[in-house]
Each structure stands twice: as C-alpha cells, then as structure tokens.
Design goal:
With 320 residues, the chain is of the alpha+beta class. The chain is built from eleven helices and eleven strands.
C-alpha cells in the first residue's frame, strides 16, 4: 500500500496554487484549477493506493476545478470518482445535472466526460478513485452529479473507505472487493435503482474468494458449494467477470504483501503460501496483473517517482 502526503506548506506561498494544481492532477485526473480568493492558498492531500484504487483525504481553500474535452482527449483516464463531502460546501455539474455538496453527501463523477467543481469556502473531502475496469457491471448513466444525503447507507460507504486506508496491505486488499461492491450499490442508489439478487450473490462470491484464495484447491466447484449456489448460477452472476481471474487477483494481492513484508522469503514459499501450484504459475499471474516480475516488485523499483510539475499536461488555465 502506497501513501503520499502533499501539502502547500512545503512550498513558498507564491508557488502554492501551481503546486496544488499539479497535485490534484497526480492524485485524480487531469483538470484545470483556479483559486477563488486572492489570499494565500492552502491545501493538503493524503493519498493512499490499494490495488489501483486511490483513496484520498483532501482539505483545501475555495477553488474552481474543470475537466475539459481536450484534457480528456490528452489524458485517457477512465475512472469513477466518488466524492464524500466532509466539511464546507460546493457544487458539482456533469451530464446536465447539478449537485449541491454539503457535509455528508456522496456524489459520483465520470472522468471520461467533462465536469466542473466549484467550492465556495474552505472544505474537506474524501475521494475514492476507481479505474472503470474495476466496476464493469454498473453503468454511471443517471448517477453522476446526484447528491446522496448523509443516510446510514452513505455513512457505511464513508466509514468503510476511511478505515481501509489505515489497514495493512494484505487486509486492505482482501476487503477492497467489498468496498467496490458498496460503491456499485451506491451508484445504483444515485441512478434510482436497487441492487438485484444477482448483485448480492456476486458480493457473496467475492467475500468467499477473499477468505479462501490461499487454498490451493479453490476452484469454481468449491466456490459454488461454499456459496450455496449451482455452477450455472455462479457463471450467470459472474458473467462480466472471470472467476479464475478473481481467484488469481486475490492470490497476487496476498503475494504482494508477503514480498514486501518478508523480502528474504523464497519465491516458491510465497507461491505455495498464496495458493499457487508453483513458481511458474505464480510468476505468470503476478506479471499479468502487476506488469512486473515478483523480484522487481519486491525490490521496490515500482514505486512512484517523487512529485514533479506537469504543467504541460495539467494546464492551470485550460478551459477548452
């Protein structure tokens, strides 16, 4: 699990907003940002990544944020952004809808389409950035720029992700599928639809796999039996997701934690402990999911480079 904290307190006042504009591009997607008041700008962003899902705690002075068609064309990011307003007020506009942001509200943004955010006073937010590929079963149609009030279900989503970033990598990776399930349900609430029986069964499958992925014999039959459903039902509710891919992803998540927490552990021991049949299978799965070998990951050379200015990509004044 990677955690980075950016703060304008680390740079001179004259550079504070330029620094901040680059930070939010790095943490989220490419946008244009402008301050609202002439006073010295202040902002802080603590960003955690758990298996490609970004979890950020943001506190900032008032500002205007725009994502334009030209930025979408340049950046190619395709993410779902779940914004949980903690303090302060603002306004989100996307897809011809406008949501008023007040403490406790949850809203969704589709990064593949233009949007604007206007914060009229100092504010804090919790932002979850999910690659669209991790939420393939839920359409954002009708769900963007819809404010879900601070009800018990919304607080459950907020509390879940607030707690997730405080956990160790292995535990966080195990729980992440449940968090994505919560977000999918919330997207359905925003769009005015309720979760189906298939969605609930799919969530049960995810929970079972996360608990049993390290067992070498885990397969489709074992999952169906453990969840009390038939193979046919399992394949139906998982129609948009590979069951073997789900098992493999959970095993690689466990392996990542072992590789970092116990660098001297032989790869064959890691492979067996995480449910793989052998080193070759482990190596193939790890490279497929992470894009690198287990040895490269263990060495730490995959870590992000230090913050750098991206003024050409994140133009502060681009409003096209």
């Amino acid at each position: 699990m990677e955690r980075t904290v950016w703060s304008t307190a680390d740079v001179p006042d004259t550079e504070a907003f330029g620094y901040w504009a680059d930070v939010i591009c790095d943490a989220f997607v490419h946008v244009s940002a402008q301050p609202v008041t002439p006073e010295a700008f202040q902002g802080k962003l603590a960003h955690t990544t758990v298996d490609r899902v970004g979890i950020s705690a943001v506190s900032s002075r008032a500002q205007r944020v725009r994502r334009t068609r030209s930025q979408i064309a340049r950046g190619h990011e395709d993410s779902v952004l779940a914004n949980i307003q903690l303090t302060g007020h603002g306004r989100l506009a996307q897809d011809d809808r406008v949501a008023v942001l007040s403490p406790g509200t949850l809203t969704f943004v589709d990064s593949s389409r233009p949007y604007s955010l206007d914060f009229v006073d100092p504010f804090s937010q919790f932002v979850i950035r999910v690659p669209r590929s991790l939420m393939p079963r839920r359409s954002l149609t009708g769900a963007t720029a819809v404010a879900l009030g601070p009800s018990e279900p919304v607080r459950l989503v907020t509390d879940f992700f607030a707690g997730l970033e405080r956990l160790d990598l292995a535990t966080a990776a195990q729980l992440l599928p449940h968090g994505l399930g919560l977000l999918e349900c919330a997207v359905g609430w925003a769009a005015g639809t309720a979760p189906t029986n298939a969605a609930l069964t799919r969530e049960r499958v995810h929970r079972f796999v996360s608990r049993h992925a390290r067992e070498p014999g885990l397969d489709v039959d074992a999952i169906a039996a453990g969840c009390g459903i038939s193979r046919r039902t399992l394949y139906r509710v998982m129609a948009d997701e590979s069951v073997t891919g789900l098992i493999r992803g959970q095993r690689v998540a466990f392996a990542r934690q072992m590789l970092r927490s116990n660098p001297s552990c032989p790869l064959d021991v890691v492979a067996r402990a995480c449910g793989f049949a052998g080193v070759a299978q482990f190596h193939r799965a790890f490279r497929t999911i992470t894009g690198m070998t287990p040895a490269t990951y263990r060495s730490g050379t995959d870590r992000h480079r230090p913050w750098h200015r991206q003024s050409l990509q994140c133009g502060h004044g681009d409003t096209r």
